[in-house]
Amino acid sequence: MNKQTLKQLTDAHSWLGLIISGALMIVFVCGSLSFFKHNIHAWEQYHHQDKKLSDTILSPAEITKIILDRNYNIPADHRVLLIFPSDNTPYYQAYFSTETEDGQHQRFQLFLDPDTGKELDETKQNYYLAEYLYKLHIDLNIPAGKEIIGIVSLIFLVIIFSGILIHLRKLIKYFYQYRTKKTKDAYLDGHNLIGVTSLPYTFIYALTGVMFNLSILFQAGFGYLVYQGDIDALSQTSGFTSPTNIQTSGQPMNWQDIDLAVDDANQKLSGAKVYLAKIFAFGDENAQVELRLVDTNSVTERLTITYPLKNYQESSQVHVLDNPVQGTFHILKQLHYGNFGGFTLLIVYFLLGISCCYLILSGNLIWLEKRAIHRNKDKRKSLHFVQSMTLCLSIGCLIAVALCFVGTRFLPMHLARTDFLPYLFTAGLAFSFTHAFIVKNSRLVMQQQAIAAALLFMLCPIFDALILLLNGSSQGSLTDMLLVNFICLSISGFCFLFAYIKQIKPPGFNPSITTLPTEILNKG
Amino acid sequence: MWHKTFAGLFSGLIFLLFVPTALSLFAPTFTALMITLSIVLLIPAWAGIMTHCYAAQSNKQAWFRAVKYSLPSGLLYFCAYLIMGFPLGLSAQ
Predict the structure, then answer these.
(1) B86: which chain A residues are within 8 Å (Cβ-Cβ)?
(2) How many separate domains does chain B show?
């Protein structure tokens, strides 16, 4: 590869990395934490847990009867999704749409008490941190976020490819190279070392990111170029089918058999339990219930069983590997979630995710300092703004997430965190931007903000340890509490380490070089 | 940079959409396999085309590379359309 091509690739690698660094940092930080979503949910409730799932809850059939008795006008080709309660979400959830006389649809989301069947007001959830982090991971909690993440994932794949090509000749020979004498080399070497080591991980995440978020392209492409807009035919081929063409009889639904169907399904796949039901032609005699079993310890085990409620014994089942599209989608999904490898793999995935944060932060700093050195040639006023924005969205993301943890632990219970956490996250980013704008020296900003994030992440573990020592244990899960605090301390340790590396200055390094001289600003 | 971005993005997208759909028209029974291959191989190919465009020395060269990927893909689909006929009646299967 000639020098010119390498230069073009290096430019593309740097610019693209800088442009997507903010979104990618949020996705990686929140995604890494979302591996422990259920643990974080339990951690949130540790000091307040007053509601656990009792042994005598209503069955799915009884909950279905409660919804049935409300006489919603649910069209036969729609489905009612019923999610069963668990220790982390101790209530039934029902999702469906009704149809009005003028053909308009209205979406419903019900939260039902598993003991009484009464509707709960869950619009103001007190325990929102785990869900909020997951939402940030999948769509940044902004409109069209899913599509943005899809594009970001595609660009991330380009960055991976360009990085491989740039580093190709030194990939094996200098794999163990880590020079600590010169600071620039230290984080450039760290960037390369982590980049090469985490290559399979980053590749699978970039690929699945595009697959999850831009699957509409395949739907549109195959749907119109092959099937002439017949999306049902495409769904049939790709295995995304549901029993929608059910002939209704007008007779009442045999709702009692839902429990028999669930019991039967629970015997079909060892290591898996039914956790949700989809009911089609709801309320009619010919209604069908679709149950799905996923063995999370395996990459390939997923069973979908459809029971006609008229006679539940005439069930039909489909294994995920029966269809190549379903099989590929499911395997890549499992590789993305990492549940199949148990707790050990989740920890490995978490560490790799945090390593990717180092990739983003070190990459940004390399670019900012390189740019600052060459700024006299460029004479760009906007560098300082770009620098502040980049720092705010990269290292500031850690501060924002840490603030969400602190807010969750220390805010009073009556304050609805569904409303409050997004403000807290934005406040963290705003603080980071302001600090970066005032201090100007990118190295110093990174160092100070990394220390601030480290201290914030330490607050909750210290508080929990004190409470535990003074008051003893609560009703909550001690294992989850210890695990999440360990994760907070790990991120805190990572931030301290990052700040320490940035503190080492290379020979002849002048921090003031990163601030723009007044005469250049005046000249424009 | 913008030229290279759009050249890579659009030519990669055309390649991603037209190649597997053309092959699906030639071999309708393998459509599910084509969708699978699109996910596993053609998404990285899309990123590969973008990388190739970014590696170009000039915007003109980037667009030339983009045409090299998109034009044959379009022609392949056009040939499939002409040879296999349209509609294929795949929805009946």
Answers:
(1) 228
(2) 1
